[in-house]
Amino acid sequence: MKKNSVSLIVIVVIALAGLSAGLLWGPLATPANTPPPLRIGIQPSEASTPFYVAEEQGFFTQNGLTMTMRPYAIGEQAIAAAEAGDLEVGMTAEYPLVVAAFGNRSVNAIACIDKAQTVSVIARRDRGIARVADLRGKRVGVTRRTAAEFYLGRLLDLNGMSILDVTVVDVPRPRNGEAVVNGSVDAVVTGTREVVPITARLGGNATAFSAQSDQPTYVLLVCDREWAAAHPQETERLLRALAMANEYILANPAEAREIAGRRANLSEETVAAVWPGHRFGLSLEQSLLTAMTDEARWALANSLTTATVPPDFRTYIDTTALAGVDPDAVTIQ
Amino acid sequence: MKIRTQLLLGAALFGIVLLVLAASVFTTTTELGRLDRQVALADRIGIGAHDLNYLANEYLLYGEPQQAERWEARYASLGDDLANLSAETPARQALVTAITEDRLRLKSVFDGIAADRGPGAPLDPAVLQVSWSRLGVQTQGIAYDASRLSVLLHDEADRLKSFNTLLVAALLGAFAVVLFVNYVVVGRHTLQSISTVLAGTAAIGRGDLDHTIAVTGDDEVGELSCAFNRMTADLRTVTASRAELEREMVERQRAEEALKEYAENLQRSNEDLERFAYVSSHDLQEPLRSIVSFSQLIDRRYRGRLDADADEYLDFIVEGGNRMQALILDLLAYSRVNTTRQAFSPTDTADVLASVERSLDARLREAGAAITHDPMPVVLADPLQLEQVFANLISNAIKFRRLDVPLRIHVGVRRADGFWEFSVSDNGIGIAPEYFDRIFVIFQRLHTKETYPGTGIGLAIVKRIVERHGGRIRVESSPGEGSTFFFTLPTA
User: How close, in Å, is residue B100 to chain A by CA atoms?
Assistant: First the structure.
């Protein structure tokens, strides 16, 4: 046999080995041909870290996406923008979606990107507040129609009070913490990220405790139903990019925290305080339905809606995209 | 590279591949077993979360202490399972942390419910609903994360299996490639080399010693080729030597044949000469006898009637004629050694010696000689010629005796190396060593005929007779101290 033949056989063997390796290791990601522009409504906080990471690490580009991120103070605004077509994807906690469901809004959650324990009550000691029970009769600032409203009500319920035992003052975000600093409210329910700066400003006059009563915040991505149905590839690519970002966050926590602090304008101390309260990861799990239904019942019990029964939240959750990316992440029934 | 080295390398490579495969299989099996146990733990945690949800709800409904105790026990066992989970990757670490935190939150929720609930009347349905939801959120969260962990572990196991499969396939593939390349590059080379050697040996076997086997490498086959080439070179040398030897043998054989032919020619020539000498001496006798007779007749009738010179001339003629006649007789006797020879027969040398003593009795007595001898053997010889030998030697002893001492003659005999060696010793005048050879030459004389008469042919005849019997003759002597003639005869 001539040497050329031997070389050819060796090359073929190596090529087959490489092909086998490729088949064994699974298909490679295939970037799209035409990147569609997506407008994403995010909250300018550490909860948006997956978006920041995906953008900075080029995961959107790798998945054939171009992105425009727009800041929205609260989820309700993002939901409205998505429904109105101003956004393709909005970011919200589950409670605004509960409220939207009561209003028969045409939006669906396509994934939960974070389960967070990052809502706290910051109170002024000079107003006699040292623990939850001391909130009775006090002016408590809260951004209405946000999860903070539910957490405050649940916190009061579990401590032998109700929302009627306090004076709820609607304080708009993002500077809702300012109200407790200037003393217009005795306490405020806000993001834990506000604890460090507000406490610093109040000196020894501030106290803080968790508002969530162990119930997590489900940070959801919502889309207009029609848009989501018409753009399955875009939603799936978006979730793939975020999945890659979550892997990066797990593998590079220090870098991810640096990105979060820089992009959300948070101090290192603040990031260190809030980071343990986040569980970044794509999911659509059964507990989301349980939590939303629970919250809906709470809203009904507190006459925050004209509805009489909770909505079927399953119809507000579209598992198609996430099932295409990570089928095992979908356990919701 | 040596074939032995190639084989050793191949065996080493095979051993390494086997070791790696065995290590891979062992490691994979061990790791898969560990992952299976982790999966079982994750599944049990998921089941435990549902159990805790059920037990909590049961306690919510009935408020019986045993339900709280069972919940606490199940909570503890879930904690044990959780403690046995290993968080070796960031993803697993995140899920284990999440489960751990949710478990603590579940405990917090349950403890809060238990503090409010206590034993007794049924709870307010609104409180019950909220509690159920809160418990559900936590337990479902634990179950979800446990299922995610299980899936993650399954994925790791699948990747491990895939990696192991790939590793085994890659190793086997690489090994197969090495074997194939080894066969193509090394094996074929070796086989071709062996074929070359076989063809070369066949050529050498056909006698082509000029054939050189091509050395195609430095392996054992190459060494074998070199060895064959050295062998053919040696064979060429040996063959050349053999041819030279054969050529020398042929030449020697030819020389021997030439020598034999020359000897035969010489023998024939000698025999012709002997016959010629015999015939000549025989035929010369008659005219010489007439010359001598008529010379003597002239001498008797005309001595004194011519002048003195004529008388002297006649004396010369008569003397010359007599001498010529004696020479012819001696020559005839010399010739007769071979021409009138008899067949050899057992001969008692004692009888021969006795006969000689009798024939020389007068001269012996005249010389006052005494002959002694050793015990004489019987030999295979021509008795007349053997008598001629003894007679001549004893006669010479008498002739060349010293006049101042009595003549002593002794005939000795001894046996040595298949021969009888006879010796005839006397105490005569002796012979100078420089004449030892000359005395055996025909007609060679050491003395003038006036001092010792004779023709000088006696010892030549003796020598010829001894040699005819296959023996040798020599002399030992010193002037004035006598002589000893030794001659040998083969033993019978």
Answer: 13
